[in-house]
Amino acid sequence: MHQKILGEIEGRIMSGEWPPGFRLPFEVDLAEHYGVSRMTVNKVMTQLAKSGLIERHRKAGSFVTQPRAQSAVLEIHDIETEVKSLGLPYRFECLKSAERQATSEDQAVMGIEDGTPLIDIVCVHFAGPRPFCVEERLINAAAVPEAADADFGATPPGQWLLRQVPWSTAEHRIQAMSAHADLARRLGIAKGTACLVIERQTWNALGPITRVRFTYPGDTHALIARFTPASQ
To answer: 13 and 109, same structural domain?
Structure first.
């Protein structure tokens, strides 16, 4: 029922049936309509808020998010395409691809249930002879069961997901960090070297799809976002 309610509400928002600024029914009313507990509805609303589809205001209720007048957008792109755009040959190595159960830490960062089946993947992408970035990815196998049979040693996981699984919402987080010993070894850089880290999570009607961290040597990568000024 959790996934059914989430899918129906998300569908009404994405289709425009519930436009920006629309106030959703109160949790108690939704619980009565679907014949579920208020706790189940609260979990759905929390997930919708995390994915940026609604805003929750105490006492006033929950509203469909208003579009932002100005934003900088990072596209979800293919690393192979990015490397080849630099005029360099691309290859990748999958260092790890294993099935496991979600821990409480995974639950906290991905918004999934403790014990949810996950595919835990680590890859290194190369631009010519030099490591381009390290990819550390978790795929929610409950939402994407086909991932359990995918060969991520032959196809990069990001490519596979872009081709196979539609997503409706994405979130990027960008930060700097110093390379620890294991990361430095994988990137072929000195320990303590400054690195650029991009963390991304995607969702669709079934919930969280994947969470991934890309770590780049800081001297070889830059982010560019193009945007226009808001109307005066």
So the answer is: no
What are the tens digits of pLDDT across the range 45-85? 998 888 778 888 887 889 888 654 333 345 676 889 888 87
- Of 12, 39, 64, at which residue does a domain stop? 64
Containing structural domain, residue 11? 2-64
Residue 142, Cβ density class (10 Å: 0-12 exposed, 13-18 middle, ≥19 buried)? middle
CB 174 within 8 A of CB 195: no
Whether pTM > 0.70 for this model: the answer is no
Residue ending a domain, choose from 33, 64, 95? 64
> Does some domain include residue 72?
no
- SS3 string, 132-196, reads EEEEEEEEECCCCHHHHHCCCCCCCHHHHHHHHCCCCEEEEEEEEEECCHHHHHHHCCCCCCEEE
- Do residues 200 and 212 make contact, with C-beta atoms less than 8 angstroms apart? yes
* Alpha helix ranges (H) inside 96-175: 104-110, 157-164
- Give the integer Cα–Cα distance in Å for 44 and 56: 12
Of residues 151, 123, 121, the one with CA closest to residue 138: 121
Contact present, 56 and 62 (Cβ < 8 Å): yes
Please give the Cα distance from 223 to 217 (Å, whole number). Answer: 13
37 and 148, same structural domain? no
